[in-house]
Amino acid sequence: MNGTRRRRSYVAAAAAGASLALVLTACSSDDDGGGGGDDASSSTDCAAFEQYGDLEGKSISVYTSIVDPESVQQTDSYIPFEECTGATIEYEGSREFEAQLPVRLQAGNPPDIAYIPQPGFLASIVADYPDVVVAAPQAVIDNANEYYTEGWVNYGTVDGTLYATPLGANVKSFVWYSPAAFEENGYEIPTTWDDLLALTDTIAADFPDAKPWCAGIESGDATGWPATDWLEDVLLRTAGPEVYDQWVTHEIPFNDPQVLTALEAVGGILKNADYVNGGLGDVQSIATAPWNESANGIPDQTCFLHRAANFYQANWDEGLTVAEDGDVYAFYLPGESADDKPLLGGGEFVTAFADRPEVQAFQAYLSSPEWANAKAAATGQGWLSANSGLDPELLQSPIDKLSFDLLTDDSYTFRFDGSDQMPGAVGADAFWKQMTAWIAEDQSDAETLDNIEAAWPASS
Amino acid sequence: MTAASAPLPPASLVEPEEVDTTRKSTKMSRADARAAAVKGKLSSPWTSLIAILIAIVWTVPTFGLLITSFRPRSEIRTSGWWTLPWNFELTLENYQEALFGSSTSLATYFVNSIVITLPAVIIPIALALLAAYAFAWIDFKGRNILFVAVFALQVVPIQVTLIPLLSQYVDWGIAGSFWVIWLSHSIFALPLAIYILHNFMKDIPPSLVEAARMDGAGHVKIFFQVLMPLLTPAIASFAIFQFLWVWNDLLVALTFAGGTTDVAPLTVRLAELSGTRGSQWQLLSAGAFIALVVPLIVFLSLQRYFVRGLLAGSVKG
């Protein structure tokens, strides 16, 4: 049985990469006798896929917000599953995912599986389409409990039912810097928030022509989101994870005094003309600087610090190496004290809209360490998972390794991006817009928070 | 043309109108012609100057985009396209990457776009011609009410039809195929097509049609041999109109066909060219120019019909 399947999968692989297979056949025609042995060693070890059964001829449609070129790494990571089970994955990525998914659900045309990037969006899908979304099967629940921390499992849970398991993860509590510039000037990586501010002052004094910080929050129709991350990160530090959770779930109002304190702290950096906006202009220029280009002053030493997630690494110019001894790297955004280590991050969640056996099998595969490792092997840089079964040696970029270390280190308290968990009217609308107004129009701290609180839907 | 109809092409495309007015003046009476000539002598330098100025102002951004599409990423980031003479560095890398850089070559989407556009232009025109003929030349009960109803359909925004139509397609089991895109574009185009072609047909002297009838021609013969030759400008202008609309459409294709490489048109790929988090932004200008080539060729080869046909269909009626 196993032999048949393996031979069949060999045929499938040959069909998929016809030209490659032709080349291989041509090269190995001399030692044709050893072909069987070759087959066993070169193709994936299918033992871990036995549990999924034979899915020959079945297909699973996947709908995501991940598009080319990142989608290639996704589809590459499905190859072991496809080869071993015989199933076909029909991948579809769209940047209009968040607008199109509800349309498809409403019209009765759901994908089998969707990767939902916000727990808040997942909750609203479960609330709006309870008959369409399918709870996770037992195999997925087992994987989730075994390989993910309770926090991550909870982000995929709505009203006590696990619907979705985490796929990728990212870590947002990072400050990008230039190791060379730090070494040249004798700057140390700060380990507390006060150290960070002291370093900022030192840089401001040492380089009157440059500014210590650079930031940009322009991101098309999502302009403002990098500023929401700032507030969340700082709130985690000034008020602590418990208050943060209450704030996210609206147990305390959005404009709670503790949030105001946090926003004032953010303003202490982002709205301080002595600290920003290195290489880009004045405070207002933060609102118009594209987020994915705003840190370009770091290698040029027109700015020194840039708070951004690990995925910012894709935005550096190709010539720059991202490493601790390279051109650019990131350090952990310090907490109030060296022991206080909150960690802000995000990720996508695998949600199923069908309960066919092949869909459940694929869902289980995506929550397994086999997938996480296949994905890490297929990805050059810019990806990691919170799956504890992931082999860190497979991560190829130092910043991804660092992110994974922080995610799996128990001394760090992980919290999911707050705006992604809030209702859409706040998390993907008012929060972004008001933070943009806070910078662009110099709107006051209190007014900004009051406006966002006013936008919170009454039912929640 | 009503404000609620399908989007108009940019005003820059309507410019060649001027050529037309001068040509028409030759047919006027002698006094009129002299007046026109005097007027032309007085005003033409200024008109030309303004026309040239407007043309430059409208072309500069596109020209800048063209230059940007040939510049390397680091150059685009650090300096404007107008600094090209000082730091002359051009590359084809953006085009290379936009065309062949992804897992699916851009040619696939190009073919999809053509496969979508041609039927989506031909089907509504064929149907609208028949309907327009009936509305214009066949007297049947309730004709006016029906015509007003068709005309009023233009007011329905396509956005409100998306979800009901999609659920219908899903029920029929044809969602995600070319069929739904052709069908949808035809549905959305028909009211305007019928209206424009009807007005144009109505404008043809009834004596022509009556004479043909006297000679024993039936509806089919009248339609093909008398009306069709006269209708060419109207058909061509609506064809351009519909071609540009379908070629540049993202909403309909994305909603009804989805983004799978089997059916997705060029616009869907273009919308995703910059990558999941927008890190490949330097490819956008190159991608825009690749997508622009076909409509440009179509427009330039058919533009002499465009203004004439459009005005004829809409102003009179």
TrEMBL record, chain A:
InterPro entries: Bact_solute-bd_prot1. The keyword Transport applies. The keyword Nucleus does not apply. It comes from the Bacteria. Keywords: Signal, Transport. Residues 1-28 form the signal peptide. Belongs to the bacterial solute-binding protein 1 family. This is Carbohydrate ABC transporter substrate-binding protein.
UniProtKB/TrEMBL annotation, chain B:
GO terms for biological process: transmembrane transport. The chain crosses the membrane at residues 49-70, 109-138, 145-167, 179-201, 222-244, 283-302. It is a multi-pass membrane protein. The lineage of its organism: Bacteria, Bacillati, Actinomycetota, Actinomycetes, Micrococcales. Residues 1-27 are annotated as: Disordered. Pfam families: BPD_transp_1. Belongs to the binding-protein-dependent transport system permease family. Residues 110-302 form the ABC transmembrane type-1 domain. This is Carbohydrate ABC transporter permease. It comes from Cellulomonas humilata. Keywords: Cell membrane, Membrane, Transmembrane, Transmembrane helix, Transport. Residues 1-14 have a biased composition (Low complexity). Its main location: membrane. One of its GO terms (cellular component) is plasma membrane. It is found in: Cell membrane.
